[in-house]
Fold each of these.
Amino acid sequence: YCNEKLQQIFILMTLKEEQEEYVREGIQWAPVEFFDNSIICNLIENSKCGILAMLDEECLRPGVVNEDTFLTKLNQLFATHQHYESKETQNARHVMDASLPSQCFRIHHYAGKVTYNVTGFIEKNNDLLFRDLSQAMWAARHTLLRSLFPEGDPQKVSLKLPPTAGSQFKASVATLMKNLYSKNPNYIRYPPQGDPQSQPGAGGTPAQPTAVLPRCIKPNETKTAMLFTPELVLAQVRYLGLMENVRVRRAGYAFRQLYASFLERYKMLSARTWPRWAGGDREGTEVLLAELAFPAEELAFGHTKIFIRSPCTLFDLERRRQERVAQLATLIQKTFRGWRCRTQYQLMRKSQILISAWFRGHR
């Protein structure tokens, strides 16, 4: 469940928002199809008829409660669900599968099929801690014990049923998701020399803290150096959703930035925009890039941002900027040195005239 939620936020932050930005900016774009796993998340976490909700309902229901009634209820609710199957649903579909025991159900997760054995689900989900034990621990003189059992405080005793393990985990995952959604996703990599993303101000300063969504690839099962198993890596790339991400990135634009920030960084590359541009930011960006003569297919002008397709184009821009900065620094140095030499010469000339006048007068 937690992996599904992490995959969902990965999809929303890196795939869905990527494509939605092109639509918002009015960029010509052919959408890339990708699997949205919200249907699986809803299967597990739906507050009315999700698997966790049904498990909590069985734990709280009076009468004889066991895993069989829980599994029967799931089979009735999800008999036609495309991502759920059990022995009963397979029999209804006339599917012969000896790998699925009768006490199990299977969920078709984004990363593949996972079989769950319901034995012990009810007992583990109750997660009950007797109130008298909590009160005894809280009454102990040991400070650490009292801090570990705050619910044993007689003044805070609640007659409500304690939350189940499933509801606690669901609340914990919801808190994690809220925290991640408040951040900006970033890819962590080692930038090559001259990579504009490693330069201050290249991508703009994020308005929010960043969040790294890790996607780690295990090259082999034995954790051995210099050993690469193609089948294992291919399966991980597919199951982590990286194929869709790569397709979106390759079909899209590697770099995008607001016109004002882009013009402020690269305006010294054109004599028409340097040192000041009197017009609008978009017009200035268009004038600047037209003078640099980049291919038309490398650029796209959105409503508020400039899009650059290839990193090579961006590296070329950054290289030209570094050369131009060096030229401007040389110009500043040359101008300052000329001013300093002229000022020193004028002082020396005035001093020489004054000395000559006094010497002639004295003579």
Amino acid sequence: TSSTKCFLVSQPQQIYTTATMAAAARFLLRGGAQNSKLSAVSAVNSGSYHHHHRFGPTLLTVSCDTHDARSQPRRHAAHFTFQPDPVPTQYGPTQKMNLFQAVTSALDNTLASDPTAVIFGEDVAFGGVFRCTVGLRDKYGKDRVFNTPLCEQGIVGFGIGAAVAGATAIAEIQFADYIYPAFDQIVNEAAKYRYRSGNLFDCGKLTIRAPWGCVGHGSLYHSQSPEAFFAHCPGVKVVIPRSPVQAKGLLLACIADPNPCIFFEPKILYRAAVEQVPVEPFVVPLSQAEVLEEGSDVTLVAWGTQIHVMREVARMAQEKLGVSCELIDLQTILPWDTETVCKSVVKTGRLLISHEAPVTGGFAAEISATVQEQCFLNLEAPIARVCGYDTPFPHIFEPFYIPDKWKCFEAIKKMLNF
């Protein structure tokens, strides 16, 4: 016979309650009951978008039976298919890399060419939790690639001081979700250093890297997209790549830029995104959006992971509706490329903006307001925003939360029928 135990969390609980749940799950999975299995009640496990409505509020179900857990379908976190860009030929020889390897390559190029460059953060010495700095300490020494205490405010504060002293400072925040303790250092110190000193001093040689966005199982503390917080702050640049090639080129551009930059790296793409990436250093210009697909009926604007969702949306719109979509990767969130976006909207008359962050106060609102001001007479329908909800990022209910291709597709149909 089989038995099932369900742990239900409907209200905020003490931290130890969650820990107890996790311990119970681990015991049933790894302990005396060797044939236990863990089935998360989520639409991801069902493998079908159309099964979402079947699930109730249960968060964790542990079933003990005679079936081998390894025979069960694996959890597929990705809600998109990565689309590699054409192989770049203008930058010399290329090598197959995923996104974290492209980041490593950019950092390697920087350390090799700039003797003042230093990389620091929690666990970067052994390669970091995502392996972005693997091998760099052994190659360049522990005085140039080194660990810091668990203190994000201290990491950024140290980076500001190093940059003011003339070093090329590259700070890693282990997850973008934990950048908030350093918020004061970024917005009140780094962003204002040049202004408050009358350009006598600056920390423009500071670059802050952080893994960003949803990953399929990160939940509320490892899936956030905080770019809009920093887009409200003059004095810093905010950049998010969509692919390995863009990651290397944009990161090198951030490091070379004379202003402090925040570089958010889509963590779900670290291994999922693979391209032929130039081995030698190259730069992708900041504040220039890229038109990835030209179209005539609807403008689609996104950045990071969401670009790959929008590629699928554009294909669906063409196949099912006969609608031609123009897809734009914003790339730089601040300062953003208003000219490219507005030029496209003048042509298409419709705009859909999508990002993973909550909709209220998200950067889609700034884009929407600017386009409405500059392209009002060209609009054929209200601007649409398909974003995350105004809730903490969920765990098993992530498929409900993310702005997937079906939500975006429905927004296009609504605009066309306006």
Amino acid sequence: MTKGGMESVEVFTTEGKGRGLKAQKEFLPGDVIFAEPAYAAVVFDSLTHVICHTCFKRQERLHRCGQCKFAYYCDRTCQRAAWLNHKNECSAIKRHGKAPTENIRLAARILWKIEREGSGLSEGCLVSIDELQNHVDSFGEEEKKELRTDVESFLDFWPPHCQQFGMQFISHIFGVISCNGFTLSDQRGLQAVGVGIFPNLCQANHDCWPNCTVVFNNGNHEAVRSMFHTQMRIELRALNKISPGDELTVSYVDFLNLSEERRKQLKKQYYFDCTCEHCKKQLKDDLMLAVKAGESKPSADMVKEVIQLSKDTLEKINKARMEGHYHEVVKLCRDCLTKQGPVLGDTNIYLLRILSIASEVLSYLQMFEEAADYAKRMVDGYLKIYHPNNAQLGMAVMRAGVTHWHAGLIEAGHGLICKAYAILLITHGPSHPITKDLEVMRVQTEMELRMFQQNEFMYYKMREAALKNQKIQVMPEPSNENAASLFHKKE
């Protein structure tokens, strides 16, 4: 069986949930269950000139398509790889006079592919585009209005010489995009840059405490002649041991919300009622609503008042962040944390949200010591709530580790970076750029930690000199300690 092949999974029908995916063999944490290239994908409207339209990597200098002047690519390799999907789009954009919105572009790419290959099963796909759910019948008035607008815009863009599709089928495609579009990220996995359709991934049902995670891998087009050449794809990765016959589940939403909030979000976006164990039994809700323990337990009214204050503060913070008023964000966070302190427990989600924002913004402002304190409290709370192999947890621990490192707290920083690395090896895999970056940090902080343990005074002197950009002599790391790394994700 080929790695990442579809032979390891099967589609089955489950009562009340429709189709789902089942494992055909055993998987261990970090195993790639399957990898799937996009059926079709496009870059977001706002980023079309800074993201490669083939591999979705952010690059400093991109080559523009000389014909439509709209599409951008890393290099000739990416441009050639894109031509099959871009050919029709290129001439349609020239004829139309401008590029339409991302939704229209994605629908057009799907329909051009159907024109080329038919709407039956594509190679490596478990289901056809025809079979994907569209939920159009469940749309509210506003969504129906948006759908009509999209269909009209599509018909205006779609060339008359291309195969013509019925209104019902075009509506089906837009419904599929609305319900099944998967967010694509840049090579660092830190910014959403586009949207794609992955028919096999669409078959995985939701669970708030899933046994799988999805990561977007931009591929490696540079190693064209080597065995490591890979295409852009999503990878479904196991989070814990999975036995043959187990259903494969992913989480469509962030777990760090009360079960009622997650269920509302899932109903609104995906049109189903979540019946997972965590929602039915409201597991972890008590932690997410925790109040300060001790003899002087705060009154219900006091808790209600502080939670309302937290919600109001989060709104003010969003506004200040949008306007780039970061010192105002810090002031709002400090004031809110002072009021939350005597009332909310360490795992309360309103406290954790403020801690997260405070640590992130203070790090940006290079106020690392205060940022590190908040980041540590945030991570301590997250570790009690999240699945131990959760990607968001891994990213948060990484951020906290880097913040401690910048603050000169090398022991805590190295410990957090190692913990983040262990999580991201499972959720992202060793070849993902963010895991590779983390491995470099892990080696660097390990070297600094040894220096610190040998001579604290000397470590701080060297650190101070490095921060002043002075040239300093550092003893080379012993070769036996400097081994190369053993190893190579909408919502």
Amino acid sequence: ISGYSLVIQARDSGTPPLSSSVTVNVDISDVNDNSPVFTPANYTAVIQENKPVGTSILQLVVTDKDSFHNGPPFTFTILTGNEEEEFTLDPHGVLRSAVIFKHMVSTEYVLCVQAKDSGKPQQVSHSYVQVRVIEESIHKPTAIPLEIFIVTMEDDFPGGVIGKIHATDQDVYDVLTYTLKSEQKSLFKVNSHDGKIIALGGLDNGKYVLNVSVSDGRFQVPIDVVVHVEQLLQEMLQNTVTIRFENVSPEDFVGLHMHGFRRTLRNAVLSQKQDSLHIISIQPVAGSNQLDMLFAVQIHSGGFYKPAYLIQKLANARRHLENVIRISAILEKNCSGLDCQEQHCEQSLSIDSHSLMTYSTARISFVCPRFYRNVRCMC
């Protein structure tokens, strides 16, 4: 307990008795009676041979139970095991290489490191670090091509994470890093550590081919990443139809069914090859294992097909559609729970273009705006 706050009252013996109170704050001063603590108590690390001087090997983690002025900053020192000065330990506790290691020269080093706190008198702790030198990479990284589909309202894309590159390496200790060609960094970014792709705001309609690569420090491999951006028109929302699927998650739909269902849906509802099918959004139905998909069909000559026309087409082709994925319902109007006649139920859809949902799999990612369905009786 670092302190106490006491309220003390003095009361006299008069009639009536009078009193007064005062607050007394008692601060408990800390003495430096706790040593730094390494977490974990001892360390094991590896470094590949032929890595450049200054390569980070290990980050020491140290805590102290004393108050702040008796704890950090810590002073780190290598006490033993570094007689040939193969290692350096910086003020932040990062162990780095000071030479280019060779697996044939030595395969293992054991260092005793010390952490000293800032109290008076200073307290110290020790830890042992075992560093193994392993052979350099012999396998190239492998990465899966990624295709990303972004649906957004007109000129209103807020940006955010749109997908993740999946890469592996057969060399157990390889650390993979991801890079993006500099000329594309005004529109996209790639997290160098985990391969997440971030799109900046204001993307225009169209197709983008990203020059992304993954490296294990020795080999660098290009990755095919294609981004398709489709901007919605406000008129689409007035001509949408919802297909509700049973027992499917958004990720499974995107990764397993979307391409096949889109193809089957085109064959079912397009009157002319030049017509355009637009998948506007997919979204789980709250409190269920169902999934809603919103779509509209744009007529080549202009305008959109009316929902009633599309629903009739879907009804005729439902058996073929269900060969791809099970359909729970086809909705133009969703009057569930409303005590009014079907023809007197009005539905409206609203899109929150600043609330994006990203459904990402290893090969395909779908980014779409969140939507809200409003229904009311008109009777």
